[in-house]
Amino acid sequence: MTDLSEKDLKKLYYSIGEVSTLFNVNASLIRFWEKEFAFNISKKNKKGNRLFSVKDILHFNKIYQLVKEQGYTLDGAKKVLSEPQEIETPSHFDKLSLISNLEEIKAKLLRLKESK
Question: What is the separation of C-alpha 113 from the centre of its chain, rounded to a whole number of angstroms?
């Protein structure tokens, strides 16, 4: 389950059985990860069964990728998930290109302003 995205999930909430099927794991593993990674399941049905939101499932997907696909230990996965996610910063070349484009737009706008 590597290519799971928000658009793949059509329902608002999923049962634990549906989540375990999505990841092809036992429901007990979902419950274990829920405890290990301190999930706050926000919704339960009238019977008290867990209902997982899309956000919960996407979080499980990150855990699954780290533990099952990349071979992280649980502690290693917790560490990765607790670190702030790095945002890719544009390279120097990208910045220069952006500045150049903005200067061209500014020049065009100034010419339009002057022509009025």
Answer: 44
CB 23 within 8 A of CB 1: yes
User: Hey, where are the domains in the chain?
Assistant: 6-82, 86-116
* Dist. CA 19–CA 13, nearest whole Å: 10
State pTM to two decimals: 0.65
Q: How many Cα neighbours within 13 Å face the side chain of 8? A: 11
Residue 73 pLDDT greater than 70, yes or no: yes
Binned at pLDDT 50, 70 and 90, residue 86 comes out as: low
Distance between CA atoms of residues 22 and 30, nearest Å: 11
Mean pLDDT of the chain: 84
Residue 92 CB-density burial (10 A; 0-12 exposed, 13-18 middle, 19+ buried): exposed
Task: Considering the domain delimited by 6-82, tell me its CATH architecture.
Answer: Orthogonal Bundle (1.10)
